[in-house]
């Protein structure tokens, strides 16, 4: 019923947009930014690319210039358009349902991707390019964009979740960060930090499922949904994990609620820069947050694997991400697929994911390359050994299980679960998760 209603509404919206002059051959409306590469080339095939992250355009612009130099017999004119997050994903749904106005290639956020795998899939399989590199890649990141044996998008990064430690605080507390191997070790280290410094060990967010709960349950082989799409939000592993998050604040007293509700807010950046806490749990791509918003922390931050739940347990999880896909509306689908693989899946493309964007590339066979190991601003800020550490945890990263109801889970978690357990401490984790699971199940029915 819900899917039928969505299709009906999108159909009505298409008629309205066409009547207003906003539909027709272009369902996208106005882009915030447009960059064109290869505009002056004769007989170039135009490839349009939509994204919601302006920074990503740098990767494809570089690739388009290299492509045209190396492939003068099949030049491309790349038209890269950047839109706001919701607008772009809504426009894409509309274009797919109406069969017109869509891009040749498009970035799709990981949590939104299941919406485009419903019914008759309008994205092109990339198997011929993906399958040859899987033995040298973190395969779980490709599985996030797969269905029924087909790979419909290429990942932008591994998104390996790590701990960022303030070494000055940890040294003052007398803690060797390399001795923190389990979450029990983390709690004991936190007690030393609180006793010997003016900082707390950590912060728990209330507005970002991605930065706290999700990686911590993923490293225990749990999730909000299982591999069959069954809701497991209120299973015992998830209850125990949320109990841990509640306990570090109210029982062990080594953590505080994250200022601003998450570690991606201006309020938090100022707090952490002033030594409010000793550590941050976040994917590796959070490095850019330090360079952009906490530059004074250069030389003070060390990156280490997540603590495991038991000795020998998993010490990372792959969080967040964007899959880039080719739509069946592409003027030349084979050329679009070939260029996308060149830009993002080749060795040079994966190297550029690091050197251009600062992301951990999905192909681990590039991690020890000369180009990736060369000095850059991230090594200057955080020190060497980043990819040596990633090689240790690459097999710990699980596939995430998304469904069309994942947004309801995240909404329930932010709106009710964290407010009752983390912020106000008025509900037990079991009570809060069971109530949230009941609400999501009602939506699913």
At a glance:
The protein is α/β, with parallel strands linked by helices and 445 residues long. The chain is built from 18 helices and 13 strands.
Question: What are the key terms here?
Answer:
2 domains; D-Maltodextrin-Binding Protein, domain 2; single chain; ABC transporter substrate-binding protein; alpha/beta; globular; three-stranded antiparallel sheet; six-stranded mixed sheet; 445 residues
Task: Give your account of this protein's structure.
It comes from Gracilibacillus pellucidus. This is ABC transporter substrate-binding protein. By secondary structure, the protein is of the alpha/beta class. The protein folds into two domains: 23-158 and 320-390, 3-Layer(aba) Sandwich (D-Maltodextrin-Binding Protein, domain 2); 161-317 and 405-444, Periplasmic binding protein-like II (D-Maltodextrin-Binding Protein, domain 2, 3-Layer(aba) Sandwich). Helices cover 42% and strands 13% of the residues. It is built from 18 helices and 13 strands. It has helices at residues 2-19, 56-70, 85-98, 127-130, 139-143, 167-173, 183-196, 213-218, 236-250, 266-273, 287-293, 333-344, 347-355, 370-373, 377-382, 386-393, 406-423, 429-444; strands spanning 33-37, 45-51, 76-82, 105-109, 146-147, 150-151, 154-155, 161-166, 202-204, 255-257, 279-283, 301-305, 322-326. Strands 1-3-2-4-13-7 form a six-stranded mixed beta sheet, with helices on both faces. Helix 2 links the parallel strand 2 (45-51) and strand 3 (76-82).
């Amino acid at each position: 019923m819900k899917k039928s209603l969505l299709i009906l509404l999108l159909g009505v919206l298409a008629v309205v947009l066409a009547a207003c002059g906003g539909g027709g051959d272009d369902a996208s409306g106005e882009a915030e930014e447009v960059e064109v590469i290869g505009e002056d080339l004769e007989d170039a095939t135009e490839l349009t690319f939509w994204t919601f992250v302006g920074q990503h355009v740098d990767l494809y612009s570089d690739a388009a210039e290299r492509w045209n130099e190396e492939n003068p017999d099949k030049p491309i004119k790349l038209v890269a358009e950047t839109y706001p997050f919701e607008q772009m994903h809504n426009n894409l749904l509309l274009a797919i349902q109406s069969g017109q106005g869509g891009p040749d290639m498009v970035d799709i956020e990981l949590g939104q991707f299941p919406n485009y795998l419903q019914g008759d899939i309008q994205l092109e399989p990339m198997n011929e390019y993906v399958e040859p590199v899987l033995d040298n890649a973190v395969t779980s990141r490709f599985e996030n964009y797969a269905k029924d044996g087909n790979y419909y998008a290429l990942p932008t990064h591994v998104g390996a979740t790590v701990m960022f430690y303030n070494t000055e605080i940890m040294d003052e507390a007398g803690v060797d960060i390399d001795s923190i191997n389990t979450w029990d070790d983390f709690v004991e280290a936190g007690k030393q930090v609180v006793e010997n410094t003016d900082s707390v060990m950590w912060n728990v967010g209330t507005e970002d499922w991605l930065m706290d709960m999700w990686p911590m349950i993923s490293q225990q082989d749990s999730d909000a949904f299982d591999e069959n799409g069954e809701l497991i939000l209120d299973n015992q592993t998830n209850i125990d994990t949320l109990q841990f998050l509640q306990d570090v604040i109210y029982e062990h007293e080594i953590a505080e609620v994250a200022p601003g509700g998450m570690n991606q807010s201006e309020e938090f950046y100022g707090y952490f820069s002033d030594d409010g806490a000793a550590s941050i749990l976040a994917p590796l791509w959070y490095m850019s947050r330090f360079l952009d918003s906490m530059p004074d922390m250069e030389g003070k931050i060390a990156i280490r694997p997540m603590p495991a739940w038991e000795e020998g347990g998993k010490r990372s999880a792959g969080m967040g991400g964007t899959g880039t896909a080719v739509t069946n509306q592409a003027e030349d689908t084979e050329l679009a697929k070939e260029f996308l693989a060149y830009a993002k899946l080749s060795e040079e493309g994966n190297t550029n994911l690091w050197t251009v964007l600062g992301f951990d590339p999905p192909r681990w066979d590039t991690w020890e390359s000369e180009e990736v190991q060369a000095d850059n601003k991230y090594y200057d800020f955080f020190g060497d050994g980043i990819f040596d550490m990633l090689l240790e945890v690459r097999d710990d990263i699980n596939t995430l299980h998304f469904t069309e109801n994942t947004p309801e889970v995240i909404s329930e978690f932010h709106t009710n679960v964290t407010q009752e357990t983390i912020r106000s401490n008025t509900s037990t984790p079991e009570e809060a998760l069971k109530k949230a699971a009941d609400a999501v199940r009602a939506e699913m029915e």
